Amino acid sequence: MSSESRLLRPFRIDGRLEGAFRSTEFSYGDRRCTAGEHVLIEDRTFGMRQPVLEWSSEEHFEDFKRDLALGAVGMGIHESRLCLAVTARSGYLKHCERVFFQPLDDLDGLDRKVPLDKAPDGSRRHVFCAESHGAVVDAYLALRRPINPAPLRPSRMAAWFAHASFRVECEGEPDLFRPQPLDDEHRQRLRLAQETVRFLELDPTSLTLPLAEGDVPTFWVDEQLLTDVDRQGRSPVAQHFQRHLAFDFVVGVILEFARNADHDEVASYEDIRDSLIGRVARLLAGTRADDSQRDAMLKLCREDPGRAVALAEHAVGLRSAALKSLEQ
After folding, report:
1. What gap in Å lies between CA 328 and CA 325, rounded to an integer?
2. CA neighbours closer than 13 Å in the CB half-sphere of residue 223
3. pLDDT, average across residues 1-16
4. Which of 92, 127, 289, 301 could lock onto 308 through a cystine, CB 3.0 to 4.6 A?
């Protein structure tokens, strides 16, 4: 006996409506997918990328709208009873919200590409702020009002005629660091001034050792600032500060590596891939880089740390976060 599960819908749907989303695409920044597929975000930029739904190609957009109108007529349903609706949900946040709505009797006002990230007040929707846990976007052609029941035809409000689902998955590396609260006791032990915000406690001999064998550096951050950032975690200002912390940590590792590197003994990325500086080289090279490009980043950290530091700003998305923080 087969155990395969299937969705059984006792309806007869006009083919022009049922296949409405066959060419619909979803993009999340520069990553794209079609219905039933997913995009993978590997560089912790989930909270910075723009989600956009593209109903069809530019060449076929008029056909897309015409099929919707003719399909409604074919099923004996007035266009005003139908709508295009898009929801976005996050299992991690236990949150789902409607991010787009358009009645079918206003197809002339339908844009071919629909940005989904902005809430009515202009802020980024919460479902796209989970940073590293992904989301699911669902597009529906559905009834916006109930209609008279008829055999094999949906009639209840929100019953759908076509559905397409798109997933955003995150596969970020484990955190390079976890900031530790810098309180008065640790500030005194480390001989730090009262206005010091952060301090990297790092053993330079551990930079090229596998993280499991070497000492993990401690990144001290002012206790009050950490508390405030945690409380305002979704705000653009807090996200900018978090990315700046990541940048400061990476800068500390790069400069310490350059200061202590033995230029006569050149290690390859393959030799130190599991070390802290290996992970920094991987971050600078980007998720699609190969080992030769990571070797080049390791060389840059060793021979031109100033340029490596500048590249680190790009790697952690510092500019985008700074601009968003200034929009408030």
Report:
1. 6
2. 8
3. 67
4. 301
Q: What is the DSSP letter of 275?
A: B
Global pTM?
Answer: 0.56
Let me know: does 91 contact 132? Beta carbons within 8 Å.
no
What is the rounded CA–CA span in Å between residue 24 and residue 20?
A: 8
Residue appearing with tokens 């399909």: 71
Which parts of 36-159 are beta strand (E)?
38-41, 51-54, 82-90, 95-103, 113-115, 135-143
Neighbouring residues of 303: CB distance < 8 A, sequence distance ≥ 6: 258, 263
Amino acid symbol at 193: A
Question: What is the H or E stretch that residue 310 is in?
Answer: helix 305-315
CB 146, CB 126: distance < 8 Å:
no
Average pLDDT value for residue range 83-105: 92
pLDDT 10s digits, 118-153: 999 888 898 998 766 789 999 999 999 999 888 878
What b/e sequence results for 151-184 when a residue is b if at least 16 CB atoms lie within 10 Å of its CB, and e otherwise? Answer: eebbeeeeebbbbbbbbbebeeeeebbebeebee
Torsion angle of C-alpha atoms 224, 187, 278, 174, degrees rounded to 10:
-40
Burial class (CB within 10 angstroms; exposed 0-12, middle 13-18, buried 19+) of 48:
buried
Q: What is the DSSP string of 217-259?
A: PEEEEEHHHHHHHHHTTTSHHHHHHHHHHHHHHHHHHHHHHHH
Q: Taking a C-beta distance cutoff of 8 angstroms, is the pair 128, 148 a contact?
A: no
Q: Are 168 and 39 in contact (CB under 8 A)?
A: yes
